[in-house]
Q: What sequence folds into this?
């Protein structure tokens, strides 16, 4: 059955939003940087939040706002993954969940592996937890990006205590395979290390690819792993502050259970209310329509770059609404997004923030209308040929 793609809101309407995406730069700049999307909210989310506002339901989040069950149902329906809601706890956002788990599974000064190019806050949350970043870059096979399992093995053998995994990976959009994840789990188990899997982009894996929840990759993965996730990327709820820490083994569940209650108190009630609605079956149709739209945009971007910026190197992502684009050949230096914002009026995310692998790169958010995407690439193309 074909799905009608979800249409992004008109730009005049989006400019009335007050979030970072729409307030950081002046109106002549097309904002394709921060990971917010331009679509109307899922109707079930709008309904749940409107009702909460009408009721003045703006107090503290109760111990069980229903989101653990809602996520477990979602994971079963969308990923075929059985999650025990009793092994989930909430907190305010994914990065806080990562930090708090890292604090429990590492000691001060321990090394934690990250796999650049990677979501810039990873470089900050590891030291926030008292640990030290150890970089093991992804391997570019020529047709895909993969975890460098040999490099990770060497780092673990050298004493690294944990791996901070991004699954699917931001910014490359890689949905890691079950085999890779199972091999990673075996390595971690062999060295007594932990894997924390950031799965915030999981609902957005495109057709032709599969999302493998890390904890489901193998029995070893269930033992060594923690997943941290949220409805906030797929459903554009980042400002509402609710994330889930998910475990699949008694001892990891104990670690999460033993976190101070204060960490759970930081869960936003609106985030939990919206998350329950987002993960409910009622929102599946909206999510499928969003995926159809993003699928079309990830391909459109390839066509637009070929036409207007042929020197750009772009690999269509497996997941999400973020594109990792190599602009080295344009000769705009290490940080081409700076030139592009200044000269073309298009705000993209700065490649070098993702690690040295991001020199000469930009990250483009294509969670917008095809018209905005076209205009942005045409502006960059005009600059390139000026
Ligand atoms: C991989 C990844 N993790 C975490 C986040 C942020 O999540 P949160 O706002 O829940 O901390 C993002 C936001 O774009 C992301 O891409």
A:
């Amino acid at each position: 059955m074909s799905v009608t793609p979800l249409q992004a809101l008109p730009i005049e309407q989006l400019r009335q939003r007050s979030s970072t995406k729409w307030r950081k730069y002046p109106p002549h700049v097309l904002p394709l940087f921060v990971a917010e999307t331009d679509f109307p909210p899922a109707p079930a989310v709008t309904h749940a939040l409107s009702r909460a506002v009408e009721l003045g339901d703006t107090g503290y989040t109760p111990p069980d706002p229903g989101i653990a069950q809602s996520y477990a149902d979602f994971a079963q329906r969308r990923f075929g993954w059985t999650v025990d809601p009793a092994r989930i706890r909430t907190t305010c956002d994914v990065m806080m969940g990562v930090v708090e788990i890292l604090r429990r599974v590492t000691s001060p000064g321990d090394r934690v592996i990250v796999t650049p190019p990677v979501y810039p806050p990873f470089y900050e949350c590891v030291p926030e937890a008292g640990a030290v970043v150890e970089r093991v870059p992804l391997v570019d096979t020529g047709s895909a990006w993969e975890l460098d399992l040999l490099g990770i093995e060497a780092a673990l053998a050298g004493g690294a205590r944990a791996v901070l995994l991004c699954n699917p990976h931001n910014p490359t959009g890689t949905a890691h395979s079950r085999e890779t994840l199972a091999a990673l789990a075996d390595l971690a188990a062999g060295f007594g290390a932990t894997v924390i899997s950031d799965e915030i982009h999981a609902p957005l894996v495109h057709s032709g690819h599969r999302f493998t929840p890390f904890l489901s990759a193998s029995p070893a993965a269930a033992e060594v792993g923690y997943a941290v996730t949220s409805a906030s990327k797929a459903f554009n709820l980042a400002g509402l502050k609710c994330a889930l820490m998910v475990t699949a083994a008694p001892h990891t569940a104990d670690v999460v259970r033993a976190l101070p209650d204060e960490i759970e108190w930081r869960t936003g009630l609106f985030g939990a209310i919206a998350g329950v609605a987002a993960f409910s079956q009622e929102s599946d149709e909206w999510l499928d329509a969003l995926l159809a739209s993003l699928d079309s945009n990830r391909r459109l971007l390839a066509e637009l770059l070929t036409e207007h910026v042929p020197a750009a190197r772009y690999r269509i992502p497996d997941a999400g609404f973020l594109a990792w684009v190599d602009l080295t050949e344009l000769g705009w230096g290490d940080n081409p997004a700076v030139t592009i914002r200044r000269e073309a009026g298009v705000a993209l995310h700065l490649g070098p923030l993702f690690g040295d692998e991001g020199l000469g790169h930009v990250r483009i958010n294509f969670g917008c209308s095809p018209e905005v995407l076209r205009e942005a690439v045409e502006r960059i193309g005009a600059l390139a040929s000026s």
